[in-house]
Write the structure tokens for this entry.
Amino acid sequence: MRRDLNGRPVVAGRLSRLREKMLGRRDRPGLTGVDDPDLIVVAESGDDAVASSAALASSAWRAGDEVVLRHVLRLPERRVADAIATAALDGYRPVDPSADDDSSADTAGTGEVIVLLARVQLLDAVHLSQERSRMASLGSRHSGEALRWQVLQPPVARR
């Protein structure tokens, strides 16, 4: 199912369904979930000073295709469940940290945990900035911090 820029499912209207039935389905199937092992990182940054538009412009990100937007946070162990519950309100799911190839660069002190939160959505620079801000706020409210973000898409050959 396709998703919009805010990660919400998009339900096709009657006209779209009729057009698809008459002309055949033209769009690519959407991503199925955040745990797809075939996804590759096409854009990422851990630098708060880098503009989202600049990071996306210098990456292999394909505009118009759905992405998995993944955020890496460092949180106190006692606050993880609350942070995950809050992020779930916006469609984010926790992801196994072993799914992140660069997780060795992220360190957690005593009583801290590295948490990965991800969701499927369409993406543009404005909404990436919005989500970066949302995760920075989430980390701050739970006595932690947002370390970095990643945009994942399937390889071009699989599309």
